[in-house]
Amino acid sequence: MSLLVGFAPDGRGKAVLHLAGMLARSAGDDLVVCAVVPAPWYPSPARVDAEYQQYLQETANAALEKARTRLPSDIPSTFVVHDARSVPAGLLELA
Questions:
Q1: DSSP code per residue over 12-74
Q2: Which of 2, 16, 31, 36 sits in a 20 to 30 Å window from 45, CA-based?
Q3: Which DSSP helix (H) or strand (E) runs through 3?
Q4: 3-class secondary structure for 73-89?
Q5: What is the pLDDT of residues 24-59, one digit of tens each?
Q6: How far apart are CA 24 and CA 22, in angstroms?
Q7: What pLDDT is attached to residue 22?
């Protein structure tokens, strides 16, 4: 079994990662750390939102790198950036 935890791209989720790490270690489960970003609009020929989507992806990846450094190395972890219409919907889709 795996434990799923959402990590905000603002990177302020130190307590969440600590708790998730403790739970995963005590249960012997893998940990999936996820940053959910807003899904892109339908593609347009002008590609107006491409730069914004790239910014969101880079911010989410940077947050997950920060999360990776905060978790102990003995906890098997996977780090995922997921596009969804909302954070709760994205976490449900991954679960």
A1: --HHHHHHHHHHHHHHT-EEEEEEEEEPPPPP-TT-TTHHHHHHHHHHHHHHHHHHHHHS-TT
A2: 36
A3: strand 2-6
A4: CCCCEEEEEEEECCHHH
A5: 999 999 999 999 998 877 766 666 677 888 888 999
A6: 6
A7: 93
Residue 78 has pLDDT above 70, yes or no: yes
What are the structure tokens assigned to 85, written together? 């219409």
Q: Which class for 4: exposed (0-12), middle (13-18), buried (19 or more C-beta within 10 A)?
A: middle
Give the strands of the sheet with 2-6, arranged side by side. 2-6, 30-38, 77-84
Quick: pLDDT tens for 1-17. Answer: 889 999 887 767 788 89
Nearest to 37 by CA among 85, 95, 3, 94: 85
Whole-structure pTM value: 0.84
